[in-house]
Specification:
seven-stranded parallel sheet, Rossmann fold, binds uridine-5'-diphosphate, 11 helices, two-stranded parallel sheet, binds nicotinamide-adenine-dinucleotide, alpha/beta, about 40% helix, about 20% strand
Length: about 350
């Protein structure tokens, strides 16, 4: 049985990943400090997969703890989701972001090395590309992030490129996510942001459930068809399937993968509002306000390489993204607090 350490496994993408891993026959141990997730997720994962797992509450920066975990379990691989992801906060608190995202990653890699575990999937992001001056990003688009969060991701990517050169036995996948949205089809797990959501989809769904009065649309004067920003939204279940495919593909012949995970088709803010209203039957009040600092008008993935290398392609469209988000929000109006 293949055993995987999933850091950040109670978070949004991590929790969906753990279900697919358990369903695919992997054994899973989660390490998460619960800084942005709830322990109640674990019982839901077990309920949905019909399988048990080990959950360890702790910080990925804790060398001693990691050493103990690697001594206890014979892992084949790790998937490293643990990290902080709010772009605005990263600009205000750079030390917090470099410490969590960069130091945390290095401690993990050191302890993997010590334990002889050399297979890794790292959660990277389209933010590593910055603003190249065009809108369709392939993996060869220059890397020039424009915010602290993006720079933490690039530093970890660079660390892993250097590690691979120095230690060829490592097998590493850098997966660059575009805009993950949606939830498990059961409505039992989903995105559960603490505080005011930064991202569009959780904000829309909190307006729909009535916990926020209206959505602020950040600008309708971009040079896009309806003036609002365009993004490549990808269903979390598709995104996660890309991780399982990467884990199965990593090997001697494919030992360093750098792949975009997106659909290749962007949608505007107004299109997302329209899709949510159509699938939920709920009206989303909104107001057009100033552009948000640092936002780009438009970008999306060229995801051809993931198709070629992994045989992976996103399957689920925006109606499923919205319907699944709404099912989760409607049945869990206050997130996981009921557990
Ligand atoms: P999330 O916040 O829901 O999950 C991250 C998890 O990591 C949380 O459960 C949090 O408690 C945990 N964590 C944070 N710091 C930790 C630490 N030092 N030690 C142990 N646990 C820690 O976020 P998510 O959306 O699931 O994102 C997962 C990963 O994917 C992150 O690395 C994020 O940067 C990356 N990513 C996310 C998006 C997105 O839009 N959601 C896009 C691109 C990349
Ligand atoms: N957006 C918005 N209102 C919000 C949150 C986001 O209009 O409350 C817009 C944002 O300007 C961008 C798109 O929705 O055009 C996606 O934003 P999100 O923060 O989800 O993703 P990112 O900008 O990080 O790609």
């Amino acid at each position: 049985m293949r055993k995987v350490l999933v850091t950040g496994g109670t978070g949004y993408i991590g929790s969906h990943t753990v279900i697919q891993l358990l369903n695919a026959g992997f054994e899973v141990v989660i390490l998460d400090n619960l800084s942005n997730s709830s322990k109640g997720v674990v019982a839901r994962i077990e309920e949905l997969s019909g399988t048990g797992l080990d959950f360890i509450e702790g910080d990925v920066r804790d060398h001693e703890l990691l050493r103990g975990i690697f001594a206890k379990y014979a892992f084949d691989s790790a998937i490293h989701f643990a990290g902080l992801k709010a772009v605005g906060e990263s600009q205000e608190k750079p030390l917090k972001y470099y410490d969590n995202n960069v130091t945390g990653s290095i401690v993990l890699f050191e302890e993997m090395m010590r334990a002889g575990v050399h297979k890794l999937i790292f959660s990277s992001s389209a933010t590593v590309y910055g603003d190249p001056g065009y809108v369709c990003y392939s993996e060869t688009t220059p890397l020039a992030p424009i915010n602290v969060y993006g720079r933490t991701k690039l530093i970890v990517e660079d660390t892993l490129r250097d590690l691979k050169k120095a230690e060829p036995r490592w097998q590493i996948a850098l997966l660059r996510y575009f805009n993950p949205v949606g939830a498990h089809i059961s409505g039992r797990i989903g995105e559960n942001p603490f505080g005011v959501p930064n991202n569009l989809m959780p904000f829309i769904s909190q307006v729909a459930i009535g916990s926020r009065p209206k959505l602020m649309v950040y600008g309708n004067d971009y040079a896009t068809p309806d003036g609002t920003g365009l993004r490549d939204y990808v269903h979390v279940e598709d995104l996660v399937a890309g991780h399982v495919a990467a884990l199965n593909t990593l090997g001697d012949a494919n030992s360093f993968l750098t792949l975009n995970l997106g659909t290749g088709k962007p949608y505007s803010v107004l299109e997302m509002i329209g899709a949510f209203e159509r699938t939920s039957g709920v009206k989303i009040p909104y107001e057009i306000v100033e552009r948000r600092a640092g936002d780009l008008p438009e970008y999306y993935a060229n995801a051809d390489l993931a198709k070629e290398v992994l045989g992976w392609q996103a399957r689920l469209g925006i109606d499923r993204m919205c319907a699944d988000t709404w099912r989760w929000q409607k049945t869990n109006p206050a997130g996981y607090v009921i557990d």
